[in-house]
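Page 47, continued from p. 46.
Same chain as before, 142 aa.
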Amino acid sequence: METLVHELGHHWQQMLGEDPFVPNSQVTHNKEFRAKMIELGIYCDSEGAYYKVVPEDSPAGILFKEWAMSMPDGVPVGKAMNFDWIKWFAKEQGKERKGRSTLRKFSYECGQNIRVSQRDWPGATCKDCLTDYMPAEPRPRK
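Result:
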């Protein structure tokens, strides 16, 4: 439901806001948008990630309560938090991402890199330095 209110905020900004989204811009959650979201009780950062639980007395909180929606169990609550709802939900559903690419990295001597899905790369030559791609050294695991 937070996501729906969030997306309606984008619609509000395009129709009635003074600083709407500009095509080909990197900024989609500017100060005007974030201020409107806080006014409604939805707290998102400049990248759109939620960082605070919706207060029960906010417009969004009242709407959620009227619609008999409650916060799922186990969600951390605090004044402000660095919390990724998508990752939390995926973990709850047993579908947590491993966070590693399945692509294999190959590099040219000139420093250019590519990633491919094939385990045994058939080879390619850089047009700039005329060298073949070589498998890059694997990064050490953390």
